[in-house]
Amino acid sequence: MSTKRRDYRDLIFKIDAELSKIHDADLLLERILLEARLVLNADAGTIYVCEGDQLVFKYSQNSTIEKRLPPGHKMPYTNLSIPIDDSRVAGYAAKNRVALRIADAYAIPANKPYKFSPSFDQQNNWKTRSILAQPLITSSGNLLGVIQVLNALDEEGNAIPFTAVDERIVGHFASTATVALERAYTTRAIILRMNRMAEMRDPKETGAHVNRVAGYAAEIYDRWAFNHKVPDGEREKTKDTLKMAAMLHDVGKVAISDLILKKPGKFTPEEYLIMQAHTCFGARLFADPQSELDEISAQVALTHHENWDGTGYPGKVDVCADNPIGTPLEKGPDGSARRLKGEEIPLAGRVVAVADVYDALVSRRVYKEAWDPEKVYAEIKSQAGKKFDPEIVKAFFEVLPRIEGIRSRYPESEDSAVCRSGN
């Protein structure tokens, strides 16, 4: 075996170990695409997931285009899909369960069933040359999606064809990445089942809502961490954990009475106090932490309704099962639990606070129509330094195109508008 091949193998083994540490399926997909590009020195790529008879774009990356963006910015999400059939390169690879290697996208022989669409190139002043599409197939034969990498680069940065060796390398990479992806899907399914318990009690806790809030939180944190020069390794690890924890932000509502959760009108002051206890019930679920995910989930559940100016809830409380819910650890002037303020509030809670309020305002509820996006943005800006950490608000607006992309990726069904906001 040549030194170059041994280097490739060593790199893939290292990547395998890194992928095994990522628990969130979406972040894993993004990382799989990035690492596939690095292994093959590809300028760009797209990763698709299989949904029915369609391949849905999950992530697109393009180093050339991203260099044109301001530092720390990423390409917006693309909410498109293509059919799993012979008409497109990725669709052909998925349908026929084969890798497809094309030397020049603009010179595909006329007798081939698949065609190349130049619309992306035309819109972005970029040119696709070489393509390598590899299906992601589980050991049991299920199709999960397709990795498509574009424009292999030589040492001078010129686009060259992918080789047969590249095809074998990405095939091995895809098989090991698929194992990690199956594990991540299983983790997500467990978390979503926990949320379905809350959804049975409170129709607000839909899968679409929790996926949006989790996606927003991950993007907001990622930008905040970039602004604060958090090292890449720490940033990726925290982003992964926070995204899963954010999905469980309101899981404590399983302990709140249906008479309150499903009340169509506004709460009385007494009912609102009872509703506030969902933060403590949620944190109590993680009171015996076994992992960093448990610790962050407890922080998010307990503190995502705390306010930067100290006017939120539940404050400095004890969530131990041996004490009544809401027992103060420290008392304020009125005898109730002292409210948390500023950076006393854990970062995870401050991030999810913005993500949750944004989704509540921009979504239709039984007691209100969806706010106009510009009105929502004005409200969030006005609450910087009051309800929200100003630095988190700054990060929110810096990633707004990706926030809007997540919102369109997880639309709410018509019958979900019966929900109630917990704010």
Would you spell out the secondary-structure blueprint of this structure?
Layout: H1 3-19, H2 25-40, E1 42-51, E2 54-62, H3 63-66, E3 81-83, H4 89-96, E4 100-102, H5 119-124, E5 131-137, E6 143-153, E7 159-160, H6 164-201, H7 207-227, H8 232-246, H9 258-261, H10 269-276, H11 278-284, H12 292-303, E8 317-318, E9 327-328, H13 347-362, H14 373-382, H15 390-398, H16 400-409
Antiparallel strand pairs: 1-2, 1-6, 2-3, 4-5, 5-6, 6-7, 8-9
Helix pairs in contact: 1-2, 1-6, 2-6, 7-8, 7-13, 7-15, 7-16, 8-12, 11-12, 12-13, 13-14
Number of strands: 9
Topology as H/E string? HHEEHEHEHEEEHHHHHHHEEHHHH
CATH class of the largest domain: Mainly Alpha
| Proportion of residues in extended strands | 5-15%
Write the CATH homologous superfamily of the largest domain: Hypothetical protein af1432
Which whole number gives the mean pLDDT?
Answer: 88
Write a concise keyword list for the protein shown above:
alpha+beta, Beta-Lactamase, Hypothetical protein af1432, 16 helices, 9 strands, 48% helix
Folded structure, characterized:
- By secondary structure, the chain is of the alpha+beta class.
- It is built from 16 helices and 9 strands.
- The strands form 2 sheets. Strands 1, 2, 3, 4, 5, 6 and 7 form a 7-stranded antiparallel beta sheet that branches. Strands 8-9 form a two-stranded antiparallel sheet.
- Helix 2 (25-40) packs antiparallel against helix 6 (164-201).
- The longest helix has 38 residues, at 164-201.
Summarize the structure.
The chain has 423 residues and is of the alpha+beta class.
